[in-house]
Design brief:
With 379 residues, the chain is of the alpha/beta class. The protein has 2 domains: 254 residues, Zn peptidases (Aminopeptidase, 3-Layer(aba) Sandwich), CATH 3.40.630; 114 residues, Alpha-Beta Plaits (2-Layer Sandwich), CATH 3.30.70. The protein has 11 helices and 16 strands. The strands form 4 sheets. An 8-stranded mixed β-sheet has the order 1-2-4-3-5-16-6-15, sandwiched between helices. Strands 10-12-8-13 form a 4-stranded antiparallel β-sheet, covered by helices on one side. Strands 7-14 form a two-stranded antiparallel sheet. β3, α3 and β4 form a beta-alpha-beta unit. α1 crosses α3, α2 packs parallel to α3 and α6 packs antiparallel against α8. The relative contact order is 0.20.
Length: 379
Amino acid sequence: MIKNALPWLDTLTRHRRFLHTIPEPSFKEKKTCAYIRKTLDTLGIPYERVLDTGVLAHITADPTYETLAFRADMDALPVFEKTGREFSSTHEGFMHACGHDGHMAVLLSFAEFLWKNKDRLRRNAALIFQPAEEGYGGALRMLEAGVLEKAGASQVYSFHVSPLYPKGKVYISEGSATACDLAFDIHISGKASHGAIPQNGRDAIVAASALVGALQSVVSRENDPHSPLALTIGTLKAGTKRNVVADEAMLECALRCALTEDAAEAAYANVNRICRGMAAAFDVKIETKVDHFYGAVMNASECVGRIESAFSPGEVVRVPPLVVSEDFFAFTKELPSAMFLCGVRDEACGFVHPLHADKFDLNEDALLYALETYIRLVI
């Protein structure tokens, strides 16, 4: 299955391991961008900067050919690495715990393959290195900066490593491939008082506690069970001292809906309705504010078919949508697109930790299946 990609394992490994040592936060991928540009400069591949740290490279075999775009995300997570690898993060407190180092390594190896095999290409390629995927809307910013117009592509492809699935195959969904992600905050304003005279205050903690329980009905009683929905209240911050009635509370929440944006919006409307009721019940002020709203990644049938037709039966496996979010959704709204999964689970080597975990790791040979998919799409 990986006959085209196999000779590039050493290149892939070198890129991935160096990038793993320099994880950087969203929109601050300075060293990462410099490494990408240096690699492209060494190869002689033309490119242009998009935003401060984004890069768009062009490999044109024939101006009359169709152009496909391929995207890799660049940023890392605020995680203290505990893999113990010799190429662990040198930036304390940050780690490529979501596999973006692998995504970039595949795209850089793909760039070199394209440049050295122009005579084999039947399509041109535009390579998009995108900053700030981790909740900061990098894809939307790149689109606003005109990256697709500059790329001149007819379709866009991307992939994500997945420890849910064993290495050795490509996994894909048609239609909805990821969940909608509606992240929002709830701020409760009460009135402080001494704990000995609680009647003079309006307790934000009591209101918050009741609200946490009431919000569970958004999923259990307000949502159609046939439409997957998850509501997570990830943090609750309140109070200053043990004997003071708290005047403020803040809840950080996330809604995940695997099918439609309408369902996520309806759930958020129910959240606001419950908040209004709780505000009246506890005589406090409750405000909600959306932090970000990512739609579902929608894999176009023609793009899924193109990937499947490049392989033998059984090498590409259909899987259910993931209940995670990805800002690649923004590309899928603009052009026919597809994001597939590259399985990296390897129990024999102990590579079983989930994404975003401080021990997440992979064998670079698992990435060959993503590289092979990209290669087959252009040759």
